[in-house]
Amino acid sequence: MNLRVPGPTPCPPEAMSALAQPMINHRGPEFAALIAEVTEGLKRVFKTRNDVLSLTASGTGGLEAAVVNTLSPGDRTVVVSVGAFGDRFKSIAEAYGASVRHVQFPWGEAVDPAVVAEVLREEAGARTVFVTHNETSTGVTNDLKSIARVVKDAGRLLVVDGVSSVSSIDVETDAWGCDIVVSGSQKGWMVPPGLVYVAVSPAAWEAAAKAKMPRYYLDLAAAKKSLEKGQTPFTPAVSIFFAMQATLKMIDAEGLDNVFARHQRVARYTRDGIRELGLEMLADEAVASATVTAVKAPEGLDLKVLLRELREQRGVVLAGGQAKLEGKIFRIGHLGLVDTPDIDKVLDALRDVLPRYLAAVPVRASGRAR
Ligand SMILES: *Cc1c(COP(=O)(O)O)cnc(C)c1O
After folding, report:
1. What is the per-residue pLDDT for 366?
2. Atom of ligand 1 nearest to the CA of 7
């Protein structure tokens, strides 16, 4: 199978054999050494000297941790959203009783930092801003550096969903002033789902000390206290740590800048190939993501049937659209373990299969579809 969804991603043999290691005591010296090594590796990739905590949860668990450790019920807060994952921050914050100013941009477009600046002038009481770096549902990467500058100039705390960017797209956590950055193991890290990483700045710790939202499993202060002893508060996904030990070595060996450049190159290759097939991207080239490409389905094309044929007949697994983009786009994941030959398999399969589907598409879409 050519698994090309934007997470979970394929795992290299190094990760798979690491996963097969015998279990260890999560309160013993082997685990203390393991979590110390993985945490140091995470800090290099996050480009931070802040604490980086590994929680056993999916990416959303990390987003929820960011919310409940920075806010109190009733707090006014700003959520900047360009898609389904941005909206998730709003849902979580409201579930815990925050009052959300939801700043929305059209799906397929990026955040305009000037609009964020304007909103922050209006929302003097909102101390925390939530934003998605790479919006996996639309294939858009926001200009995090510019957004961070605006948020920091306004003296607010910045919480970043970097789940599908950190390790594949450059995130300068400290240099840009990101207070909390979240990333998930099943994305660019080339390991299975199970861990979420949360980088926490000194300012975020100050906010956490005052934040009154209820929390127990996701209490970051408890995670920090345990990490100082080489542990986690609760039994962690030990095997995912083994796999991370292996893939962090691979990332170091390739070099972080080379990893980022490979993602850019593969993403460009993907978009060029899609254009050659006569299809269009949802996002503009200038904001197109290096980790996921969202492709517009020509009107009338039955995406469900197309994706099933690709999977069953060609072994190519792509993702559909989420929420209001369901049936309107399909998405190709190209993060972590990926290079152009993986994309060739996707494009070859589409080249073989698409014409039959496009033939069935009504005339008005045929100009676009060729
Ligand atoms: C995958 C992803 C998440 C987390 O999803 P989970 O299913 O909870 O792991 C969050 N944000 C973004 C941008 C993602 O791509």
Report:
1. 45
2. 1
Counting Cα atoms < 13 Å in the Cβ hemisphere of 227 gives 19
3-state secondary structure of 204: helix
pLDDT tens readout for residues 289-340: 999 999 999 888 999 999 999 999 999 999 999 999 999 999 999 999 999 9
290 C-beta closer than 6 A to ligand 1 = no
Measured N-to-C along each axis, helices 256-276 and 340-359 cross at an angle, to the nearest 10 degrees, of 20
Q: How far is the CA of 254 from the centre of ligand 1 (A)?
A: 25
Locate all alpha helices (DSSP H) within 96-201, ordered by sequence.
113-122, 144-153, 173-176
Query: Is there an atom of ligand 1 within 6 Å of 322 CB?
Result: no
Where helices occur in the chain by DSSP H, the ranges are 13-19, 29-46, 59-68, 84-95, 113-122, 144-153, 173-176, 202-210, 220-227, 238-254, 256-276, 303-314, 340-359, 366-369
Give the pLDDT band (50/70/90) at residue 367: very low
Strand partners, 230: none
Q: What is the pLDDT of residues 98-133, one digit of tens each?
A: 999 999 999 999 999 999 999 999 999 999 999 999
Mean predicted lDDT score pLDDT of the chain: 96
Closest by CA to 43, choosing from 149, 176, 198, 260, is 198
Tracing tokens 């090309």 back to the chain, one arrives at: 4
Give me the residue label for tokens 């900047």.
80
pTM above 0.90, yes or no: yes
Q: Is 291 in the pocket of ligand 1 (CB under 6 A)?
A: no
Element (H, E) at 182: strand 180-184
- Residue holding tokens 């920075």? 70
